[in-house]
Amino acid sequence: MTKKLKNLEDLFEYELKDLYSAERQLIQALPKMAKEAKNPTLKEAFESHLEETKGQKERLDRVFALLNIKHGNTKCLAMEGLIEEGKDLIDEDATPEVKDAGLIAAAQKIEHYEISGYGTVVHYAEKLGHKEIHQLLSETLNEEKKADTKLNDLAKKSVNQKAIV
Question: In Å, how far are 50, 52, 123 from 30, measured between CA atoms?
């Protein structure tokens, strides 16, 4: 039975559990994306973001401890769908250059979802007066924004151009 969401604190916990599930799923998906990437810079970006994502999950573990709640068995269906789209792309018959461009597109969809989710919980933490949690979640939000920028720059400056031919 699910808990009734009576106030912003309940919604905050609900959203945190969703993000925790998203991070756990992404930790499983990023090695596959790195393996499929042919561009060395893209491969390194996925590998680097995997380590960053592990740290983000650990940060969420700290948030759960500070709130004295469990992460539960929530499954983030949005992340599941975004990862499935990435898997579908990997299975397409595409040149390595086009596949790399598609991997960036899939990864940016994931980053944008995470930016949205973390932006929401950062605001909730601030409104609820959770200063330390606000700081932890803001750190993750900034990392997600930097990862998106890095992918965007890589696509625009190199990968997409190679996929044109």
Answer: 6, 11, 27
